[in-house]
Design goal:
Its cofactor is Mg(2+). ATP binds at residues 112-118. Pfam families: Mur_ligase, Mur_ligase_C, Mur_ligase_M. Pathway: Cell wall biogenesis; peptidoglycan biosynthesis. It catalyses: UDP-N-acetyl-alpha-D-muramoyl-L-alanyl-D-glutamate + meso-2,6-diaminopimelate + ATP = UDP-N-acetyl-alpha-D-muramoyl-L-alanyl-gamma-D-glutamyl-meso-2,6-diaminopimelate + ADP + phosphate + H(+). The protein folds into three domains: 3-97, Udp-n-acetylmuramoylalanyl-d-glutamate--2,6- Diaminopimelate Ligase, Chain: A, domain 1; 101-332, UDP-N-acetylmuramoyl-L-alanine:D-glutamate ligase, CATH 3.40.1190.10; 341-498, Protein-Tyrosine Phosphatase, Chain A. The chain has 499 residues and is of the alpha/beta class. The chain is globular, with a radius of gyration of 24 Å. The strands form five sheets. The protein has an eleven-stranded mixed beta sheet, sandwiched between helices. A six-stranded mixed beta sheet has the order 19-20-24-21-22-23, sandwiched between helices. 34% of the residues lie in helices and 22% in strands. Strand 21, helix 13 and strand 22 form a beta-alpha-beta unit. The protein contains 16 helices and 26 strands. Helix 4 crosses helix 11 (323-332), helix 13 (391-402) crosses helix 14 (418-429) and helix 15 packs across helix 16 (483-498). The longest helix is centred in the middle third of the chain and has 16 residues, at 303-318. The structure holds ligand UAG, adenosine-5'-triphosphate, 2,6-diaminopimelic acid and magnesium ion. Adenosine-5'-triphosphate binds next to helix 4, helix 10 and helix 12.
Length: 499
C-alpha cells in the first residue's frame, strides 16, 4: 500500500507543491499524534482546534509530507502541498492510498435516526448464514468476522474508515455492513466509499445542535442515496431500501437514481408487514409484497424491530439471499447488546436496558412496554450533555405520558452541569405527569436502585439511554458505568433485603 508522493499528488487538481521531491509515503494521517516516519499529514480544521497548528508535532513525529489549506512552515526536506479544499483532497488521496477497498467487497450502508445498529447486526447474521465472510462497522464495535476491534465514532473518519476497509478486504471479507451516521455524511467521512445497497430507517428529531435544521439533517442522510450513482462509481446493480412509512422517505427517494425496494406497515410497499403479533419474548409477522411472501418468527420484540427486520430483509433480498435462508437466520437471531435487553437476576418483575436516546426511540420502546405490560411501567432515563438540547423536554414529556413512575436522572453529562440538563428534562416531565409518581435523582446508580426498589411483581422497569455503554462521561472524566451491571446488583440487593 505505500505510494510515491508523486502518485498521490497526481490525484489532485489545482495544487501548489513546494519541495517537490520523490518520497515514499507509508501512511496517511489526519492526527499529528498518529504520524510516523514517512507519513503524509493532512491539516484538518476541526470544530475544536485547527490541524494546521499541529504541523510542528507532525514533523517531530517523522512526517514526510504535509497537505494544508494555507501556508505552513516546513523544512526543505519535507514536501508541502497546498490545496483549496482539504476534504476534497482527502477524498481523492485516502481511498487511492488504500487501493479503493470498498470496490473489492459488497458494501451495505444503513442510515437513519434510529435502528442502524440493530439492522446492521441483523444483516450481518443473515449474510453469515448465507456463508459470506462479513465485516461490521458501527456504534458498538468493529467486527472482522468474529475478531472485534474497538470503535470511537459510529462511523469512523475517512482515514480510519479506509484503513479498516483495507484491513477487511485483506482479510477476505465478501461483505461490509456499516452504519452511516449523519455526521459522517456531513463531514465527508464516507467519501470514496462506494455502497451497493443502502437502507433508510427513519428520520426523527436528533442532532439539531450539529445540523441546525431538520431539513439539513435530512439532506445529510440523502447524500448516502445520491452517492449510490455518483460520477466516478465503478460498481453496478445498486439498490436503495426505504421505509416509506417515514415522512422523510420522499427526500431519500428524490435523491435516489437506482432501483428502490420500499418497506412499510401502514402503506402498500414492496415489503409489507401484516398480521403483526408483539409479545414479551419476541414477535411474529407475515411479509407480503412483490419481492417475497414469508412468515417470520423473531426473538426480538416491538413494532420498531418489525421495521428493522423489514429493512434488513430488503437489503438481503437486494443482495439476492434466498428467502428461506433469511427466515432461518431471523429465527436464530437473538439480540443486540443494550437494545431492549432483558436483565434476569431472579426477580419477579421485568427489567429492560435500552439505548433509546431520542424522543422517537423512547416513545417506541415505551409503546412496546405498554403492549406487553401486565402492570406498571417504571422508566429511568436522562439526556446526554453537549448534544441536541431541544430533545430534552420532549423526551421528558414522552416518559411522563407513557410511564406510571418516572425517574429522571443523568445520561452522559459530558461538560454540562447535570442539574441544568435535568432542569430542561423536567420542563417536559412536570406538566405531563397527570398525578403519576416522579422523582429526580441525579446520580444514575441511585436512580436505577430506586427504580428497582419501587418495582413490584409483573412491573416493567425500563432503563433507557445508555444501552451497551460501559462508561459514563462526566465533567471530571470518564468512569466505568454499565446499566446492566448496576441493574443486576440492584436486583440482588433487593432480593437479599426481602429474604
Ligand atoms: C462533531 C464531530 O463529529 N467531531 C469530530 C471531529 O472533531 P473536531 O472537529 O472537534 O476535531 P478537532 O479536535 O477540532 O481536531 C481537528 C483536527 O486536528 C487534529 N489534531 C488534534 C489534536 C492534535 O494533537 N493533533 C491533531 O492533529 C485532529 O485529528 C483533527 O483532524 O473530528 C474528530 C476526529 O475525526 C472526531 O473524533 C470528532 O467526533 C467527536 C468525538 C464526536 O463526538 N462526534 C459525534 C458527534 C459523532 O460523530 N457522532 C456520530 C453519530 C452519532 C449518531 O448516529 O447518533 C458518529 O458517527 O459517531
Ligand atoms: N426502527 C426504529 N424506530 C424507532 N426507534 C428504534 C428503532 N430501532 C431501534 N429503536 C430505538 O432506538 C434505540 C437505538 O437503536 P439502534 O442502536 O439500533 O439505533 P442507531 O440508529 O444505531 O442509534 P445511534 O444513532 O446511536 O447509532 C433502541 O434502543 C430503541 O430504543
Ligand atoms: N450516537 C448518539 C449516542 C447518544 C447516547 C447517549 N447515551 C448520550 O450520550 O447522549 C450521539 O452521539 O448522540
Ligand atoms: Mg448505532
Amino acid at each position: 500500500m505505500p505510494k510515491s508522493i508523486k502518485s498521490l499528488i497526481g490525484k489532485l487538481d489545482n495544487v501548489k507543491v513546494t519541495n517537490n521531491m520523490d518520497v515514499n509515503i507509508t501512511s496517511v494521517e489526519y492526527d499529528s499524534r498518529k504520524v510516523k516516519n514517512g507519513s503524509l499529514f493532512f491539516c484538518v480544521k476541526g470544530a475544536t482546534v485547527d490541524g494546521h497548528d499541529f504541523v510542528p508535532n507532525a514533523l517531530a513525529n517523522g512526517a514526510a509530507a504535509i497537505v494544508a489549506e494555507r501556508n505552513v512552515d516546513v523544512p526543505d526536506n519535507i514536501v508541502k502541498i497546498i490545496v483549496d479544499d482539504m476534504h476534497a483532497a482527502m477524498e481523492k488521496i485516502v481511498p487511492y492510498f488504500y487501493d479503493y477497498p470498498s470496490r473489492k467487497m459488497r458494501m451495505i450502508g444503513v442510515t437513519g435516526t434510529n435502528g442502524k445498529t440493530t439492522i446492521t447486526y441483523i444483516i450481518r447474521s443473515i449474510l453469515r448464514k448465507a456463508g459470506y465472510k462479513t465485516g461490521l462497522i458501527g456504534t458498538i464495535k468493529i467486527m472482522i468476522e468474529d475478531e472485534v476491534l474497538p470503535i470511537h465514532n459510529t462511523t469512523p473518519d475517512i482515514v480510519d474508515l479506509q484503513q479498516i476497509l483495507f484491513q477487511m478486504a485483506q482479510a477476505g471479507m465478501d461483505y461490509v455492513v456499516m452504519e452511516v451516521s449523519s455526521h459522517a455524511l456531513a463531514l465527508h467521512r464516507v467519501a470514496g466509499c462506494e455502497y451497493d445497497t443502502a437502507v433508510f430507517t427513519n428520520l426523527t428529531r436528533d442532532h439539531l445542535d450539529f445540523h441546525k435544521t431538520f431539513e439539513n439533517y435530512a439532506l445529510a442522510k440523502a447524500k448516502l442515496f445520491s452517492s449510490l450513482t455518483a460520477p466516478g462509481n465503478v460498481k453496478n446493480n445498486k439498490t436503495a431500501i426505504i421505509n416509506i412509512d417515514d415522512p422523510t422517505a420522499e427526500v431519500m427517494q428524490q435523491h435516489t437514481k437506482c432501483p428502490v425496494f420500499t418497506y412499510a406497515v401502514k402503506k402498500d410497499a414492496d415489503i409489507k408487514a401484516e398480521n403483526i403479533d408483539i409479545h414479551m419474548n419476541g414477535a411474529s409477522f407475515r411479509i407480503t409484497g412483490r419481492l417475497c411472501q414469508m412468515d417470520l418468527f423473531l426473538n426480538i420484540t416491538g413494532l420498531f424491530n418489525v421495521y428493522n427486520v423489514m429493512g434488513a430483509v430488503g437489503a438481503a433480498l437486494a443482495e439476492k439471499i434466498k428467502p428461506e435462508l433469511i427466515k432461518q437466520a431471523l429465527a436464530e437471531f437473538h439480540s443486540v447488546p443494550g437494545r431492549f435487553e432483558l436483565i434476569r437476576a431472579g426477580q419477579d418483575f421485568c427489567v429492560i436496558v435500552d439505548y433509546a436516546h431520542t424522543p422517537d426511540g423512547l416513545e417506541n420502546v415505551l409503546n412496546t412496554a405498554k403492549q406487553i405490560a401486565k402492570r406498571r411501567i417504571i422508566t429511568v432515563f436522562g439526556c446526554g450533555g453537549d448534544r441536541d438540547r431541544t430533545k430534552r423536554p420532549i423526551m421528558g414529556r414522552i416518559a411522563a405520558e407513557k410511564s406510571d413512575i418516572v425517574i429522571a436522572t443523568s445520561d452522559n453529562p459530558r461538560t454540562e452541569d447535570p442539574e441544568f440538563i435535568l432542569g430542561e428534562v423536567e420542563q417536559g416531565v412536570l406538566p405531563a405527569l397527570h398525578g403519576n409518581f416522579h422523582e429526580k435523582i441525579t446520580d444514575r446508580k441511585k436512580a436505577i436502585y430506586r427504580a428497582i426498589e419501587l418495582a413490584k411483581k409483573d412491573d416493567i422497569v425500563i432503563i433507557a439511554g445508555k444501552g451497551h455503554e460501559n462508561y459514563q462521561i462526566l465533567k471530571t472524566g470518564i468512569i466505568h458505568f454499565d446499566d446492566r451491571e448496576v441493574a443486576v446488583s440492584a436486583i440482588k440487593t433487593k432480593l437479599a433485603e426481602e429474604k
